[in-house]
Specification:
Shape of chain A: globular
Order of helices and strands of chain A: EEEEEHEHEHEHEHEHEEHHH
Number of helices of chain A: 9
Helix content of chain A: 25-40%
Number of strands of chain A: 12
Oligomer: homodimer
CATH class of the largest domain in chain A: Alpha Beta
Distance between the termini of chain A: 44 Å
Strand content of chain A: 25-35%
Largest interface: A-B, 62 and 62 residues
CATH topology of the largest domain in chain A: Rossmann fold
Radius of gyration of chain A: 18 Å
Largest sheet of chain A: 7 strands, mixed
Number of domains of chain A: 2
Structural class of chain A: alpha/beta
Chain lengths: 296, 296
């Protein structure tokens, strides 16, 4: 049985409230904040919650909670890794909490991971307070650069990566340049033929305009048939319905080229929290109203 | 681009906050409430929101919003209707907003719908303020009874329904008796052989104990192999990840007995908002952590 509490018992001072002025996710915090630092870009904080574990926020937007982060990180990393047959070089833009690289290093075929995070305070907070998420920062295959991802891809060599992951925060502050066509043209250029990119592509409900604009932008760059939206239940983000997008340079398809048997073995070996081969396939199935949003 | 607002700009008086003391969904309301009435059971209210349309609440728990209700109502009604080949008699317990019967009457094979809602104030509010949801209350196949659903099934004849839908609110107040084994034993008894029941079975994250207890209870009554959990993105409920459960008396299976072609035609004909045959199948795929919760 749950105990229902009324609005009058809600004390905003005890909650982190992530809202867009219309809808909000609020997560109650225990005691004082564990960490707060204003970087040149944003305010990074860590809190202890009641049942979602520790929580990392940027400008009071929830980036991740220990209880719920696996759904996001497993789905953004393993979905491309179990369709592209030979990923050796990976570029991660953002991802400062470390969850995406934790998942990537489970794949022994990867030879090098370059991660470009603009804000070292995010990395520092995660290393100090979120050890189950940040546990791969010392991995020998990782080259961590504290730098601007937009400038990095402008200068990256042509055809130098098999997989690029855009693990960004929302399109405000330093991440806003990650939602532009010129950025994705550079990403496309630095992908090898057959390469894949997966992208945190916002919520069709919570950020409807950013979602639509990014989908349109990706289709312009990669071509209509090479952009594949997929959905994940991410309860640490407002409204819980969040999208990732899988794009390919040369047509590797997230379902047709999916190695179900390999994904089955991989899921079992790593005791994954969210991802399994059936979830991989089901995630690309879209409710009608979301199909309509991206068709227009 | 979204405009980020900080917690300090959050005025609780402008929001309906549906929380369990740990996590909350908050939806901002415009102007004064449209309706408020204390029934013998609960306080029923209707609000205008900013981008979710009108919203019905019971004791400040969100029951439905115009923008998001279709996901719930289509999935609780069409999933059984497109697997059971010959539903003639349907019993709906709860469902006072009318959305479930709106979806049911799209199926011409249904001969009679008996709906038992304990609180006529819910029906009244929905009829007055939510016309797109409550539009089937005058349907000639419907027999609406304002009565206690628990007593109703106790007195119902054996083997009298092909489909029962438990469209309840959360297990507090008058709905708490809908989460008990004796209630489901009566439901089982009044199902015809081959009959199906679908149930609002809570969130594994927001109501974890109620979710686990109900799943266990249903397996005791229907048998382990006849209880099938499925998931729906329901952004109008906290954390967005919500479950429904499909149980059968005699083993009709929600995937093996699914009529994909019929569902395809049905989806097209009715221009559905959420449900389609691929969504039907994908909904039964569970992330690993939810599989583990219900296996234990």
């Amino acid at each position: 049985m749950t105990t229902k509490q009324s609005t009058s018992e809600f004390n905003p001072a005890e909650w982190v409230i992530d809202h867009n002025g219309k809808t909000a996710l609020a997560i109650r915090i225990q005691g004082d904040r564990l960490f707060q630092e204003a970087s040149p870009y944003q305010v990074v904080e860590v809190f202890e919650t009641y049942d979602r574990g520790k929580m990392l926020t940027i400008d009071r937007m929830v980036m991740c909670t220990e209880a719920d982060e696996a759904s996001y990180h497993e789905m953004i990393a393993h979905t491309p890794m179990l369709t592209h047959p030979g990923v050796k070089d990976v570029l991660v833009i953002g991802g400062g909490d470390g969850g995406t690289i934790r998942e990537l290093v489970r794949h022994p075929g990867i030879e090098r991971i370059t991660m470009v995070e603009i804000d070292e305070v995010v990395v520092k907070a995660s290393k100090q307070f979120l050890p189950t998420i940040s546990c791969a920062f010392d991995h020998p295959k990782l080259n961590l650069l504290i730098d601007d991802g937009i400038k990095f891809v402008q200068n990256a060599a042509d055809a130098s990566y098999d997989l690029v992951i855009i693990d960004s925060s929302d399109p405000v502050g330093p991440s806003s340049g990650l939602f532009t066509q010129s950025f994705y043209q550079d990403v496309y250029r630095c992908l090898r033929p057959g390469g894949v990119v997966t992208i945190q592509s916002e919520s069709p409900l919570f950020h409807p305009q950013a979602f639509v604009d990014l989908n349109y932008c990706l289709k312009q760059v990669f071509g209509f048939d090479s952009v594949h939206l997929y959905l994940v239940f991410i309860p640490m983000y407002p409204m819980g319905l969040w999208s990732l997008t899988y794009c390919s340079k040369g047509g590797v398809h997230p379902i047709k080229n999916f190695d179900y048997e390999k994904a089955t073995q991989f899921t079992k070996k790593h005791n994954l929290n969210y991802y399994n081969p059936d979830v991989h396939q089901a995630a690309f199935v879209l409710p009608n109203y979301i199909q309509k949003i991206v068709e227009n």
